[in-house]
User: What shape does this take?
Amino acid sequence: MNNIQQLRVQLEKMFESMGGGNLEQDAANILNELQAQLNSALDDLAIQFAKSLEPRITVSVREVGDHLLAIKGGDQINQSAQRNTVALEADQVLIPLIETLDEGLGRYSYSCEKTVLKRLLKELWKIVIGILEKTVVLPPMSDKSMMFKSLTDNAKNLAANAKIEDMSRLFKNHMTGKPDVKNALSGVMDIPKEVEKNLSPKQCAVLEAALEIIKTYFHADSGGLKKNYMEKSPELQSLRYALSLYTQTTDTLIQTFVTSQVTQDTTATEEDIVGEINIQVDLFTNPGTNEQKVNVKVISANNLKWVLTSGMFKPFVEVNLIGPHLADKKRKHATKSKNNTLSPKFNETFHFIIGNEQQLNFYELHICVKDYCFAREDRLVGLAVIQLKDIVEQGSCICAISLGKRIQMDETGWTILRILSQRNNDEVAKEFVKLKSDIRQENLLSNPT
Assistant: This one.
């Protein structure tokens, strides 16, 4: 890296000695292209070198997480004395990470060109903040029976190293077409219980203080990274956004999910469409009490993609109302099952009560077509989402909706899902995560018994 940087300096000197801005355009283009190639090579080497340090950093960040979870007290931090305590605890929890970084950076600062060191610091900053997010703030999904039921035996490693933005790809690549889904849990059952705990408000405050210490460390009295660069880096923005969501209530998170995830039922290709469902939705408001009611008529399903065997396919439709403040209300209805038909007719109507305090824009209908299985979990055929905001103006709709194999989520959706997955004592959160993480298992089609 130092050699490449020296080449860049010498090339710049050559450019100036040949006339600089007055150089012929063809010659200038050649030199500029060479400079760009050297610059790219230096970036690639910096990334490669920083990644070689990632395993050690991961170990130290996990120790940071362990120390953080050991901190007691769950109250908000208000008093000056409490803030001083938080600062001291932040120093303590960061000891494993700082020791690991000191071990290398002290040596690199003497042996690296200044420009090279800056590039290394940038890559290390990205790695440290990224690992903090995925290991401490958003550890792997905790409901193993739901989130990892068809991962292969290497699922623990996959989950522990998956970034939020990589989760949909992880699901697509590792949660479909795998044999023997009931035995696939063996690889994930030993994930430590510590990662299933929610961070308390105090622990979040300690982590916030720790982030400031890490920023100061990488700034290195103006000898390292600029504070503005770190503050605006996508990695820190993502971690802080996750922390801001972390302390919100389940109702608020679900509301944020509904309002932000507006393309959940978008299918990537025609192959992802596994049928169609015909639904009628009517919205009512009681003029006396302003209580809002949602009537859902499940008319039929058409052209379901499923392998039929005698007496083994019993499709039914499950309709779930999703939104805030539904803990004490009926949230799920299901039709009766039909026997061995790919285009079943139901004509069943269900009623959901929302109340009079919430906007209908905060709610959606999560519709699943499933294959009824006696004495074991029903199998997902396909699913669709209807957001009530799309029908508020007209008040009702009759629609034919394509069924997909799973829902689509962006980074915000995955962040919310992973936060809610850790709330093991919250039935609404557990139910929500199960619905949004469910995925059709293709391998079951070839062996429906």
The mean pLDDT is 82. Residues 263-411 form a domain with the Immunoglobulin-like fold (CATH 2.60.40.150). The CA atoms of residues 244 and 447 lie 45 Å apart. The chain has two domains: 1-140+199-247, 263-411.
